Amino acid sequence: MLSERIIAGPDCVAEGAAFLAAAEPRFAAALELTGTLPLRRKKDGFEPLLSAIVSQQVSVAAAGAIWGRMKAARLTGPRKILRASEEELRACGLSRQKIRYARELAGAGIRFGPLREAPLEEVVGTLVAVPGIGRWTAEIYAMFSLGRADVFAPGDLALQEAVRLLFELEARPGERVLRDMAAAWSPWRAVAARLLWAYYRVVKEREGIR
Fold first, then answer.
1. What residues does 6 pair with on adjacent strands?
2. For 154, which of 17, 125, 178, 203 could close a Cys bridge (C-beta 3.0–4.6 Å)?
3. Residue 107 in domain
4. What is the CATH number of the domain that holds 184?
């Protein structure tokens, strides 16, 4: 049985936020600005991973627009992706590289059910074996689709910028530095990520993640 804490509802997020505010005064101050943090739970399986691929290296607004066109065209399932022509996928806004990644994912045959009970590193290892899925995508999937409470995504630029601002650093912390910082926020690193994205939205007046 999985021993990791799962974020199942708003009460879990509130518990994590209270823990972080008690442990770090800067988080307490950030929470006063952000208010209640969002749950951000999504279903698991193929679709959220495809959505994450769509979101790579584009703005939140652009990713939302592309994903909206894909949903309208009913191109969000593995069989549909494999059967669609390149022209159909490009018409939705996918680049040639993302079309390749989408097809790699569609043909990977990932068994999503067992990932719900798998240790985090097994989840990450399974997903990053697919071309086009890096550690960021795998960690975001574990955080939102599997509800893991103690996963972080230090490669995320919005998180890096939010930490720079909140902790008054001279420069954005790199992925390794931020991963080390986030160790202090265990066992609620996924709630810390939600708080930092919410803080980013307030201070930057734009979304950091879709």
1. 148
2. 178
3. yes
4. 1.10.1670.40
